Amino acid sequence: MRKIIKIARLELSILFYSPIAWIILVILFLQGGLAYFDMLYSQETQQQLDRDLSVLTRVMFAGEKGMFSTLIEYLYLYIPLLTMGIFSREYVSGSIKLLQSSPVTATQIVLGKYLSIVIYAFIAVGMLGLYAVSAYFSIEHMDVKFVLFGLLALFLLICTYSAIGLFMSSLTSYQIVAAISTLALLAFLNYAQILGAKYDGFREITNWLSVGGRAEEIVNGLLTTREIAYFLLIISFFLMVTILRIVQERSGTKTIIKTLQYMALAVVLLGIGYITSLIRFTGYYDTTQIKDRTISAYGQSIASRIDGPIKLVTYINVLDRRAEYASPKNRISDLANFESINRFIPQLEMDYVVYYDSIPYLKLDSNETFLSKSEKAADALGINFKKLLTPEDMKKFPEVALENNTLVRFFEYKGKRVPLRMFDDMFVYPKEGEINASLVRLLDGPAVLGLLSGKGERGIDNYGNGEYSILLNGQTVRGSLINRGYEIQKLNASSLDDFKGVGIVIADPREPYTTEELNSIFRYIERGGNIYLLADPQGSKEYLQPIAEKLGLKFMDGTLMQDSEDYDVDLLRLYLTPEAEENGFLYYKGAKLVMNKAMGIEPLTDNKGFSRVVLMRSDDKDTWNKLGTYDLNLKKEVFMEGKDVRVSVPTAMKLLRKVNGKDQHVFVFGDADFISNAELNRFNINSINSLVAGRIFNTIRDRKAQVGAEKDKAPDVIIKSRRKSINTQKLIYLLIIPVLIAVTAVVVLKRRKRK
């Protein structure tokens, strides 16, 4: 050990007697500082503009533009310059022969030289840690542990790159050749995953060899034994092959023996690497203070109920526009999207079925057939067309056809199959909430929501403006109830006595209910059934008035109008009441809701035992009630002083009471369009109708419908430093400290020169 330390001290002194080590130190410090202060300045500006901030520690250090992420992106350019001369200069000076003939083993030589680089890495990372000190005093409730593990990731990456550089330096006496060779090998290891992505079997090998993304995983808050094992194995491998090379030079080993020795080491490396990369042998540690990289406690409780083999089968139609997400070249990243749940269900198997079949939006050119289009699509995705299942084969999977033959997955467990869909939004992949919903449905069955039909009510069969298909039955809509654990069941109003679901929706009937049907609805109310009642002032108000009165409410005559220069006056822009916020309907500041042709709701004296919460209320500063009919295409409606009266009335209410020891939830809306396709797709006003609707339906969810994946919010949301303080810190970190490093370097190099 003494000899190793002595060699390390000598190498470290040689390292710092070279300007390269000092220059790299300054560059790393400055580059990290520029990224750090750029983000700090940007976030402080957002705070001054009264914009909400979140997970500031992660924003500052991780993500796409964080300090650690920026440094990781460029580290591979610097390390070859640092390691290129470690052995090369020994060859040039001839001192390598003295080393080989001295009473020092090859292991001691290699470990001593490598230790000097490790110490240099420790110094470099320690200096970068000064930015963590700045962040500690700049961010309220900074996530200290998250930053410390991010520094560990940088340290491991530098050590790994250095081990590779050490080996490449041992191969040549030319330092430039060593640097370029190291750079080339690092580039290969960073992009190895891409090179083998298309080929089954080879994909797993190149993915494991790839260093790209491993440090980022730790930097972004998830430390795994797989990543630690990778870094240690790569470091160990390159140190061992370096030692082996020196030993072989001393002993004059034959080429064939050398080759076999290197191959044996490589096989051992890949074998251990494969074992340590398996989910069942992987340990995880979430370094974030809110455990953001771990599924919720509720999600974990669901996963713990899976007590046998379970599969997630992905069906890929090569003609589908989403097919590329699960194509061979993207298979590794596709699997990675489910690791968070696979971590808690290690027996989960992931299978892929690739086929070709018709899709609703398929278009054929005049000179191509369905078959030629399919062959062309398969070729573009890098898939052998001969291995695809045909439309005839796919008849064995009718559930896939019900999903329009788009990219869909099915959980298979104990003979049951439940879909897990992809979505038409910026995230595309299902998140924990959707996965939880599918698993709960798999285990317990769906939460059935009844939708009254037969009287012209709003339906889910098409995407017409007034229908409810987006919210209730949108297959590719993340917030749709069918993706949140629900099953929508159409009901006749007279058949509610046998209905055992979680609630019913009564929305804007075009015909009156018969006495028998009304009595059926009344009995449902009396036994504590949950209801969503949505009426329209110009159609269904009279038909739903008896039901409203049964609930202690009354729909008011007229249509509410709101002064506006930009919109039709019958389009209300509303805000949630303080009462609503106290009841869990809390969103961002200034969040708007939209009601089109709405009417007021009048609470009657007899509340029928319900407690009442007004969710939305018109503002009497700009709203009035228009009695009678009107046509905005023929006549512009304006508020008439002396004739019209400003009103502040409820437009949406929540009712709650206990029936037989169980909570009964009732939601009443004075606008049937509130959750319609048209409103959820509205583009001219940024409304939160869909968010509120989702929260409202989740209020009645029972155990079967729970998809809770909510976690505590990160506390690091305030920047304590002000602009003046940030500018002072920038002066210290980006000028004074680099100058001090440079002055120290000049002093050390001059002393060396004099000696």
Mean pLDDT: 91
Largest beta-sheet details: 7 strands, mixed
Task: Report the structural category.
Answer: alpha/beta
Please tell me how large the radius of gyration is. 33 Å
**Widest sheet: strand ordering:** 8-7-9-10-19-18-16
Report, as a whole number of angstroms, the end-to-end distance.
29 Å
Low-confidence stretches: 702-707
Beta-strand share of residues: 5-15%
Total helical segments:
26
- The beta-strand count equals 19
Shape: elongated
Helix content: 40-55%
Structure description:
Residues 449-679 form the ABC-type uncharacterised transport system domain. It comes from Sphingobacterium tenebrionis. The chain crosses the membrane at residues 12-37, 74-92, 113-134, 146-167, 174-194, 228-247, 259-279, 731-749. The protein has 755 residues and is of the alpha/beta class. The protein is 46% helix and 14% strand. It has 26 helices and 19 strands. The strands form six sheets. The chain has a seven-stranded mixed β-sheet. It has a four-stranded mixed β-sheet with strand order 4-3-5-6, with helices on one face. Strand 5 and strand 6 form a beta hairpin. Helix 4 (67-83) crosses helix 9 (175-195), helix 7 runs antiparallel to helix 8 (144-169) and helix 12 (225-251) runs antiparallel to helix 13. The relative contact order is 0.09. Mean pLDDT is 91; it is low at 702-707.
Short overview:
This is Gldg family protein. This protein is an alpha/beta fold and 755 residues long.
Q: What topology does this entry show?
A:
Blueprint: H1 2-16, H2 19-48, H3 56-61, H4 67-83, H5 88-93, H6 95-101, H7 106-138, H8 144-169, H9 175-195, H10 202-209, H11 214-219, E1 222-224, H12 225-251, H13 255-277, E2 284-286, H14 297-303, E3 310-317, H15 331-336, H16 339-342, E4 348-355, H17 370-380, H18 398-402, E5 408-413, E6 416-421, H19 432-444, E7 447-452, H20 469-473, E8 486-491, E9 503-507, H21 515-526, E10 531-534, H22 541-550, E11 553-555, E12 559-562, E13 571-574, H23 578-582, E14 593-596, E15 601-603, E16 611-617, E17 623-626, E18 650-659, E19 662-669, H24 677-680, H25 689-699, H26 723-754
Parallel strand pairs: 3-4, 7-8, 7-9, 9-10, 10-19
Antiparallel strand pairs: 1-2, 3-5, 5-6, 11-15, 12-17, 13-14, 16-18, 18-19
Helix pairs in contact: 1-7, 2-4, 2-7, 2-26, 4-8, 4-9, 7-8, 7-12, 8-9, 8-12, 9-10, 12-13, 14-19
